[in-house]
Design goal:
The protein has about 625 residues and is an alpha+beta fold. It contains 22 helices and 17 strands. The radius of gyration is 28 Å and the shape is globular.
Length: about 625
């Protein structure tokens, strides 16, 4: 291997100038005050770039030591300025990194917003197959795992090289240091060519998705993670005490009914289950995958309805258990869980986002999961109030209105659905009119005593319409989500009327399932593929799940692609709008922090990016609803 440590800026230029594809990798280490803190080396607020490796040709590489304890280059400022203009902002150079989010985040901390074209090989890995029907997961996509599997080469691990030290304690002239640093860039470049060859041969659309959607999304995630959300720690601690007191009160009331049966933190202990199912002789309504009696929120809601009819004296118990669980989750997940992730340097929470963890391409958030952040209606404590704007700034939220329903209308091409959206109509009123054979005017009449119930049924029908709605499922959904005890015959009539009113809906569903049966996979409109190996199975449950995926994935996955296209358009404009700070993605909602005096300008720009036609064939208007405020819980 022709790896070497660079000593002069001239050597850097000689290696990099004129290259069309450049792979790079950062080595980092904590700053002095954070060296005893776990994982500080991965935090750009607490760490520094120790060195940069580059590779432009297989088997070669250069390492540039910036912040080692010894033997650093003496031209750090000139180097970074040169790299910024000639590599990281150069639209003629494809920048390749394995986990581009990490490198982009450290560049952003230096005031450099890396510009396309760029390519994330960890995203590419997750868009390639590990067997005939499964795509690689994030756990399958680490460099040290991919290289032995795909390139038959064992790479040294960080622990083997550093032996308990930080990277800045190593001598950048030692062969093992050079080899470790340069290998990362070298093999990242090899994976770039290998994955593209695979895409071109087997799944060309996935190469487009990696290059034009997922790699750009990785950079947007870097900005969100670096910016984080500012939280009101004092308010969180006050609410923590309030939640503790509330939990004790509810638990005392439950104990008076049960005689003090141990229920644990989630009212789900074995002894508590025995009390319900054996001592009280309640029916088993649902089983877990392991074959025991299920006692999740759905079962508790069903028990509440069951007891109202059969054991009225027990109805209050299930109200209390549901309240107990709600407050326990608020405390453990949204207060205790959020408090432990407050960054000691920034006072913000910098959560992780994963854009390829789900098979539909929807985002997942962890450490902590801010996508779970509850809305006002289901939150008695005001969790969203914890998140606030910094002084002089305002929070902006732009939420795609009914994006999955709009994508569903696009797919099934039903005239009533399409026209409702094109004319700016109310799809829930349209569905209400269809279900109950009434006029749109009557469906929208809020003074009608049946208005709320009809609209609740229409909403739940709409959100289940495209995914295969059955009478029993509708009855259960309406009970759990809307608190409505609708009989089975009425549910059957609702679905019958719905299908006859939206005439092209059933045709699209049948077509989508038949196509999936033939191909054994389904796709989003842009070609994000999901294999369905059990679509023709004799096993009813497996086949039924695969059929639902055949309906769900094109819609939910295309909606996810549209969201990612929107954030990439936003990203493209941030180079001259650096006052816009992306903070969060919560399902179909984007959250930003901007200076108050720039608010109108930011809204106009972001809204235009979100509402732009995502691809030529998409003929349904997109609407981004705007809200704003000083904290996330009081946006208007």
């Amino acid at each position: 291997m022709k790896y070497k440590t660079i000593k002069t800026l001239g050597e850097v230029k000689e290696y990099l100038v004129g290259q069309a594809v450049v792979a790079f990798d950062f080595e980092t280490a904590p700053k002095d005050e954070f060296r005893d803190e776990d994982k500080a080396a991965l935090d750009p607020h607490k760490a520094k770039i120790v060195g940069i490796s580059f590779c432009v040709c297989e088997g070669t590489g250069i390492y540039i030591p910036l912040s080692h304890f010894i033997n650093n280059i003496l031209f750090k400022k000139q180097l970074l300025d040169w790299l910024k203009d000639n590599i990281f902002l150069n639209d003629k150079v494809i920048k390749v990194a394995h986990n581009l989010t990490f490198e982009a985040m450290f560049l952003y901390s230096l005031g450099i917003l890396i510009q396309p074209p760029y390519y994330d090989t960890i995203a590419a890995a997750q868009m390639t197959l590990k067997n005939s029907t499964e795509f690689r997961t994030l756990n399958d996509s680490g460099l040290k795992k991919l290289v032995p599997e795909l390139l038959n080469k064992e790479l040294p691990t960080f622990k083997e090289v550093t032996q308990g030290k930080y990277f800045d304690e190593l001598n950048p002239k030692d062969n093992k240091t050079i080899k470790y640093a340069c290998s990362d860039s070298d093999y990242t470049l090899r994976l770039y060519y290998l994955f593209n060859e695979w895409f071109d041969k087997l799944l060309p659309k996935h190469r487009y998705i990696v290059e034009e959607i997922e790699s750009k999304t990785a950079v947007y995630i870097a900005l969100m993670k670096y910016n984080g959300v500012l939280v009101d720690k004092k308010l969180m601690e006050e609410k923590q005490q309030q939640a503790e007191e509330k939990i004790i009160q509810i638990k005392d009331k439950i104990n008076k009914i049960t005689g003090g049966i141990p229920m644990g933190e989630n009212a789900n202990t074995r002894v508590f289950k025995e009390y319900l199912f054996k001592q009280l002789h309640l029916p088993v309504l649902k089983m877990t995958e392991k074959g025991s009696e299920a006692l999740d929120d759905e079962v508790l809601i069903l028990f509440r309805g069951y007891c109202e009819k059969h054991y009225p004296a027990l109805t209050g118990l299930f109200h209390l258990i549901l309240e107990f669980r709600k407050w326990s989750k608020i405390k453990s997940t949204f207060i205790d869980g959020y408090l432990k992730y407050i960054n000691t340097k920034t006072g913000r929470i910098h959560c992780d986002f994963y854009p390829l963890t789900t098979q539909t391409g929807r985002f997942v958030s962890k450490n902590p999961n801010l996508q779970q952040c509850p809305r006002k209606g289901s939150d008695p404590i005001g969790v969203r109030n914890f998140i606030k704007a910094s002084n002089g700034n305002v929070l902006l939220s732009l939420d795609f209105s009914q994006i999955e329903l709009r994508v569903g209308a696009f797919y099934c091409k039903d005239e009533k659905m399409v026209n409702t959206y094109k004319q700016g109509g109310d799809i829930h009123a349209q569905t209400t009119a269809i279900i109950y054979h009434i006029s749109i005017e009557e469906a929208m009449d809020k003074t009608n005593p049946k208005y709320k119930e009809r609209r609740a049924i229409a909403k739940n029908c709409n959100f289940g319409t495209f995914y295969g709605l059955y009478p029993k499922g509708l009855k259960k959904t309406l009970n759990i989500k809307a608190g409505l005890d609708t009989n089975l015959n009425e549910c059957e009539m609702i679905i019958k009327n719905l299908k006859s009113g939206y005439s092209r809906l059933t045709k699209w569903q049948e077509s989508a399932i038949n196509e999936a049966r033939q191909k054994k996979y389904t796709e989003t409109f842009l070609g994000r593929r999901r294999y369905l190996p059990y679509i023709n199975s004799d096993d009813f449950k497996r086949r039924g799940f695969a059929e639902r995926c055949a309906l769900n994935t094109p819609i939910q996955g295309t909606a996810a692609d549209i969201l990612k296209l929107a954030i990439n358009r936003i990203l493209n404009g941030l180079n001259n709008k650096d006052y816009i700070k992306p903070l969060l993605i919560i399902h179909d909602e984007l959250v930003f922090e901007v200076p108050k005096e720039k608010k109108s300008e930011a809204i106009t720009f972001i809204k235009s990016c979100m509402e732009k036609q995502p691809f030529n064939e998409f003929n349904i208007p997109l609407i981004a609803e705007v809200s704003q405020g000083d904290n996330f819980g009081n946006l208007n």
